[in-house]
């Protein structure tokens, strides 16, 4: 594989952009939604089915994979693409967020983080250098800097300390990044819920010169309006020609509003996790298939979906599978949700190219409220 | 759908037979293995994938489906084929075995069985008439008589009482069977581990004139030699031109020995359940993917399998998925196991047609012992 990592903006509509990331492993049309393959699998999906739905890149996690099966093991087995049978682009998170959210007994200092595995309690160390080394061993196409992420709400002094630490770690991550043809490294904007800190972080990262820029530490407890305000204040300070990735977000409505403000990339566990818990995302809003009113409903989840599962199986059958704890229920609802997300990204890209993104937003929101593919909206 | 239920024997090799069952919903080549779709789903498999592997009929359970979602509900929704998106033949068990193995607080008398649901404790009654009615509501292509099944070992007097009860219930089931074009009803031979009782049961059922005959109450605790002896003593007393179904069996080796004695049909949870617990059935015997020795093994489960999953994913990856409790691990190992079972049935049919079944048996057993697709056999 040869070639550079490139990003081109193909059209704009207001602040929204439609573009294309080119990597030696394939192209990624933006705005892009990356299904989450935490432990080297998009849960309950065959990788070829993930691709067939339109996903062009998936996310995997440094934190999970370093603990099990181990980065060196995956490297020995030919790298993560080979390991998980996904030959297309992979973005890897650096572990900073998971250390905050999952690990036990964290000890953080200038050097990095010492923590205990949530799996077996074993002691591990992550530093900017090691996080980049692991992502190189995995063979990541887009590596993320190692950062410190705080939960919100958070005292401003604490958020500032973490933001400044993340900037110093950004420099060390940048220096430790193992540059290979076509591989990219992204910086991560931190700064809690304070506009000034977000801007300070964005400007400093832009000066370092990354291949792309992520917004981290959002959707971690703050009101949605705060998240949207942080996006809006940050983006003008990032290089306009580089991809912008909003980490860990979100609902379809979140995606819409973030794209409207200029975000190009997303990842979120929502469609996969919701699918394993009986929820379906559709053009007509969210359905809770556990709800007894679906028990006798012969209608499919969405007769116009691109997903065979959404068109084929009755709500009554999905209700039965969910109530019975059947794995097929999780498989079908994961498929339905990821297909909806991919179709939705495709629709957004088309609306941006056509210059009618605001109208598209209005129509999407109205359809979600209507609750109509055939019934009322749940929840 | 029109047409009769028919069974033709196309070739014989010793006592082994290769044939074809014809139903309005499709043909079933025998010897046939029926994947188990207890609650209206072959666990962790898309129905179209089950069919693509070569399955031509699946089994579903009266007991499970009457409790959830209910037979009347399935009928209202267009029947079980429509409900589970499996338009091909379905055989339904009558519930007798599950009442014995799963239900709580059973009370059995001449009329039938009163029991509590294992799901919610609700009280239910199954009688021969109701068991046949439920199977008609489901739209079963092959219905089973309602029977009483005892665990082995069992006092001979108790086994005899249950066998005679099952015969009286066979008559009532036969009378209550809702005959529709192309639908069949099978009797079930009982009689514990006593040859004389098995023969008595088989003769009485043959006199009643069923469309096929099952051997029930085997693989319920008795030594394998006893099971094979019961098969051998029973089959000569069944009408030679009707299909013979060994219920709930078994390992590949069990299937081989049962086919050698003249069995035509099987169902068993083993390939699906084992797949959900990290075990792979292959030409080279059984692999336990939990075993640490697979952690670094880049070899596939079986490079010559008809299953893409068996050829594509490394043992190391499957080990990782199993250790991580990932649903994809259950999906892939279920696929691998059911594909092996279907390939194995196809190989047996071909060997019978070619008149070399004994040689095929020797070769299959040798391959299982060898442990070679690439490594040693596990436990």
Count of helix runs of chain A = 15
Q: How many strands in all of chain A?
A: 16
Cα-atom radius of gyration of chain A: 20 Å
Structural class given helices, strands, pairing of chain A? alpha/beta
- Most residues in contact, chain pair and counts: A-B, 36 and 36 residues
Briefly say what this structure is.
The structure is a homodimer of 379-residue chains. The first copy, chain A, has helices spanning 47-52, 62-67, 71-76, 80-84, 96-101, 128-138, 156-176, 195-208, 224-234, 252-260, 270-276, 308-312, 315-323, 327-354, 357-370, and strands at residues 6-13, 16-23, 26-30, 32-34, 58-61, 90-93, 104-109, 112-116, 123-126, 142-144, 184-189, 212-215, 244-246, 265-267, 279-282, 285-288.
Walk me through this protein's architecture.
2 copies of one chain form a homodimer. By secondary structure, chain A is an alpha/beta fold. Chain A has 15 helices and 16 strands. In chain A, strand 13, helix 10 and strand 14 form a beta-alpha-beta unit. Chain A is globular. The N and C termini of chain A lie far apart (47 Å). The C terminus of chain A is likely disordered. At the A-B interface, helix 13 and helix 14 of A face helix 13 and helix 14 of B.
Features:
homodimer, eight-stranded parallel β-sheet, three-stranded antiparallel β-sheet, 15 helices, 16 strands, 20% strand, globular, disordered C terminus
Write the layout of secondary structure elements.
The structure is a homodimer of 379-residue chains.
Chain A (H helix, E strand, L loop, with lengths): L5 E8 L2 E8 L2 E5 L1 E3 L12 H6 L5 E4 H6 L3 H6 L3 H5 L5 E4 L2 H6 L2 E6 L2 E5 L6 E4 L1 H11 L3 E3 L11 H21 L7 E6 L5 H14 L3 E4 L8 H11 L9 E3 L5 H9 L4 E3 L2 H7 L2 E4 L2 E4 L19 H5 L2 H9 L3 H28 L2 H14 L9
Parallel strand pairs in A: 4-14, 5-6, 6-10, 10-11, 11-12, 12-13, 13-14
Antiparallel strand pairs in A: 1-2, 2-3, 7-8, 8-9, 15-16
Helix pairs in contact in A: 6-7, 7-8, 8-9, 10-15, 11-14, 13-14, 14-15
